[in-house]
Amino acid sequence: MHWLSLPISIRRLFDSTEGRRRLLIVGLPLALATAFKLWLALTTIGTNDVRYWNTFMDYIVAHGSVTIYRDIWYYNHPPLMSGLLRVLSPLVPHAPNGFPFLIRLPAIVADVVSTIVVFRLIRHAWDERRALICAAGVALSPILVMVSGFHGNSDPVFMCLVLLAADRLLIGKSPIVAGLCLGLAVNVKLVPLIVVPVFFFHPRTIADKARFGLALIAVVAAGYGYHVWMAYPFMKKNVFEYGGLRGIWGLGELCGSGLPDMTSLKTASRLKQAIGLAIMVRAIALAWLHRSSDDVTRARSLLGSIGWAFLIFMLLTPGFGIQYLAWLAIASFLLGPAGGIVYNLLGGAFMFSVYHYWNRGFPWHFADSDKVGAWRAPQALLGRIAWIYLVVLAALLIREAWARRRHDH
Known about the structure:
With 409 residues, the protein is mainly alpha-helical. It contains 18 helices and four strands.
């Protein structure tokens, strides 16, 4: 019932005269951006991540999905992604551009769904005008164009599932389906664990919290259980302890400026704990403050908390990968249209510069960072500007929230 209601309600968005306006403002940019992503996926290899995925697929087809964690130390994806690679394998000979196209197709499709769901969520919590701006911003996001169309990784897919979980909790009123969606997101990558407290503390009743939690646990246990049982030491090292590349973003880059060494394992572990604690405390505090608020206020609180979770992560994370920018490319619009647009432009400029360097100029075909090496000063400068903007954005959001609270009282 809940699954059927979503496509029906999406179709109704475009049935009326107002719906045709939505198609013009959101649908046309989305169609153009999707066409460009498909063109990139059909004409390029992408980054070296695509080559890694191909290696993973060949191994899984030949040897299965358990021993890969032992034999390929850099395989850091959940078991569900092994299943996806097994499904894709027989399709490779029949697909245009073969594997490089197939591995990017799920992210391209996910961006289409994310755009529509962002519109639904923002309209539900705020208004149509804001929803149109945010949805168009997601549709045209240069970060998503490059990550989904070129890079070749699963980040846009788990972000789409996080949004679907929010949609089902706020609009579908189904904690169970929300838990299933978020559980699937965690089966794509571990990252969505950071928003579990946000979702768990949102429902008003203990029963709804329990429904959400049990559904989430069931899906995560089904996806991870067997492989954790069979290969826990290797999964612990490859998946659960993976933290990206240290020293190339944000706080990690400041270790040469008299600050503590952000690249050490001990400091990285403490920063991860700080991220989790900050998100947890914020989720509990807002759930308490809005326990008696109306549904619209609570919806804004949930969506803002999702945005803040990814903002906090990007501000404090000791590890980084250029594709991480895609997380906030969507979540930033949950914090406000202006902030989302500026972040996507700055992050997009940083990302474009990095890919252009790895491709050694135009035309883009294969961005092999392993061979070309780490990005240099021009790219690093753009990365610092993007991170500093996030610091400023966080400060502005805090000031705005403080001013609003003082006005309300």
